[in-house]
Design a protein that fits this description.
The complex is a heterodimer. Chain A is built from 9 helices and no strands. By secondary structure, chain A is mainly α. By secondary structure, chain B is α/β, with parallel strands linked by helices. Chain B has 2 domains: 7-212, 3-Layer(aba) Sandwich (Rossmann fold); 215-251, no CATH class. In chain B, 35% of the residues lie in helices and 22% in strands. Chain B has helices spanning 46-53, 76-82, 97-104, 110-119, 136-148, 166-181, 193-199, 214-221, 238-247, and strands at 7-15, 21-30, 35-39, 61-66, 69-70, 83-86, 154-158, 186-190, 202-207, 210-211. In chain B, the strands form 2 sheets. Chain B has a 6-stranded mixed β-sheet, with helices on both faces. A 4-stranded antiparallel β-sheet of chain B has the order 2-1-4-5, with helices on one face. In chain B, a hairpin with a 2-residue loop joins β9 (202-207) and β10. The relative contact order of chain B is 0.20. The interface between A and B is medium-sized, with 18 and 29 residues.
């Protein structure tokens, strides 16, 4: 295929650039030549492997279940990424798994159940990728922010607990603040969409020759999908992490950012 | 004549997972009347002991009893409303004083709020004031009023005057005395010896996470152990340990 030929030429050309960087590192004694070479090799192998697997998954003749399994794998990797980025949040992997899995399921049910897109691998996988990528960032932000809010307001939270409020009720004002912060970026970018930069889906479709109005409609659907799934994932994280931060007898656990 | 204790701790230990014990083998009975002061240097475990009483902390060893019942078997939320707590620093919630009192009891009769404010030494005119506009002393009395809204049987006071100037602190002490005399027994944590003199009906001294022996108790109450002051509750001071342990046979 011509595109594959162009691809390999491109890879070869970009390897020349990597080689230049390696030579530069060696000559200047910067010491990153091994890391650089390893990163380049690893990225190549990973992408070729993923690309080959995706070819199988996205093939029109492939069973849809392959695509669904692929999405499940994406959810697990996304939850693991959340845990890696928010290590101070107790039990965040399971909460993120539930939040992202729930958001992906709900979004796919709406999109494919209502026939917005055809229930085909070529639609399932990219849409899941877009929503998970965006939801993951908000999930990390919500989980970390929640720990910060509760640690900073421990005195007030404990004053509420001492008045006989359950943990989830005592935490509510601070959970609200954390979720608001986590969702702000997504809401702001939704409010200004198209005013500064044209969003990716729409740009891609226009470049591929689709009528701009049709491209806009698809973009709006994707945008709502991302906004909705991000809100769902963030809310689930808010509820799930809050439960993990209180003991069954309504005590606030010691939090990572607190002294002692 | 003996009466059932308000709180009874039996061989209680608390560890925070850092290896150091905040409390270690504490056995003590707190009387069901007046103001019992828990005194001792910083880091001696006073606040930890107080927090065990309303289950904001749980023991890693031993048993805490409230009027004969093991606290671990009581519903924590109901128990906390019976055993009110005022913290070291005022903790006003957003909104007005009335909003703050509503957190304690959302559907309370307005007269209950006015009564709670009166008992805490604030008038009902404060109801519409913004909580974050109050002075330190007013805010702490509002916190006391907020606690009183739940009609607690006992009050736990965790160094409630440490952030207040002396006249305001004395005013709060007077309020506490009135409440205690009106039948609300109180456990009051402090490391201020002058305050111990002013308010205590009973004094229990803690040192290094345990009840002080007679020698350590006198040492502290005479003001000779101030070198012991250091760090936050939960820390253990090895230097002073040596000094006191070495003297112990003289006790």
């Amino acid at each position: 295929m011509p595109t594959a030929d162009v691809g390999f030429v491109g890879v070869a050309a970009s390897l020349v650039l990597v080689a230049v960087a390696v030579v530069l590192s060696l000559r200047q004694g910067l010491g990153f030549e091994r890391t650089l070479a390893w990163a380049a090799l690893r990225a190549f192998v990973q992408l070729v492997a993923v690309g080959s697997a995706l070819t199988l998954v996205l093939d029109d003749d492939a069973p849809v279940v392959y695509a669904l399994l692929w999405v499940a794998g994406m959810v697990v990797v996304a939850a693991a990424t959340v845990r890696a980025r928010a290590p101070e949040v107790p039990g965040v992997f399971l909460v993120a798994l539930l939040a992202l899995g729930g958001a992906a399921t709900a979004s796919h049910l709406v999109l494919f159940g209502l026939g917005v897109f055809p229930f085909r691998p070529v639609a399932i996988v990219p849409l899941a990728g877009m929503l998970l990528g965006n939801s993951m960032a908000s999930t990390v932000s919500a989980a970390r922010r929640l720990v910060v809010e509760l640690a900073d307001h421990r005195l007030e939270v404990e004053a509420r607990l001492a008045l006989g409020q359950p943990g989830t009720v005592a935490a509510r004002p601070y959970v609200r603040a954390a979720l608001r912060t986590a969702l702000t970026t997504q809401i702001e970018s939704t409010k200004t969409v198209g005013l500064i930069a044209l969003p990716g889906t729409m740009t891609g479709l226009i470049l591929a020759g689709v009528d701009p109005v049709d491209a806009v409609l698809v973009q709006v659907i994707v945008m709502y999908l991302i906004l909705g799934s991000t809100a769902v994932a963030t809310a689930v994280v808010g509820i799930g992490v809050t439960r993990r931060l209180f003991t069954p007898d309504h005590r606030l656990v010691r939090l990572a950012r607190e002294p002692g | 004549m003996s009466e059932a204790p308000l709180f009874e701790l039996e061989d209680v230990g608390v560890e925070f997972g850092t290896g150091a014990a905040a409390l270690d083998g504490v056995t003590v009975a707190l009387p069901d009347r007046g103001i019992t002061v828990l005194a001792g240097p910083s880091g001696s475990g006073k606040s930890t002991l107080l927090r065990l009483c309303n289950r904001l902390e749980v023991p890693t060893a031993g048993t805490v009893r409230f009027r004969g019942d093991d606290v671990a078997t009581l519903d924590p939320l109901a128990h906390r409303r019976r055993v009110g707590m005022v913290f070291q620093r005022p903790s006003p919630f957003p909104g007005t004083v009335a909003d703050n009192l509503r957190v304690a009891c959302a559907d309370a009769d307005p007269s209950l709020f006015a009564d709670a404010l009166d008992r805490a030494g604030l008038g009902r005119a404060f109801l519409d004031r913004r909580a974050d506009d109050l002075s330190g002393g007013e805010a702490q009395r509002m916190c006391l009023a907020r606690t009183l809204v739940t009609d607690p049987e006992v009050l736990l006071m965790d160094e409630p005057t440490s952030a207040l100037d002396p006249p305001t602190a004395t005013a709060l002490e007077r309020r506490a005395r009135m409440l205690a005399d009106a039948g609300v027994p109180m456990i009051w944590v402090t490391h201020d010896l002058a305050q111990v003199e002013r308010i205590a009906d009973e004094v229990i001294v803690l040192v290094d996470g345990r009840v002080a022996n007679e020698h350590e108790r006198l040492h502290f109450l005479r003001g000779e152990a101030h070198a012991h002051d250091h760090g936050a509750d939960g820390e253990i001071d090895g230097e002073i340990d040596g000094e006191i342990d070495g003297d112990e046979d003289g006790a």
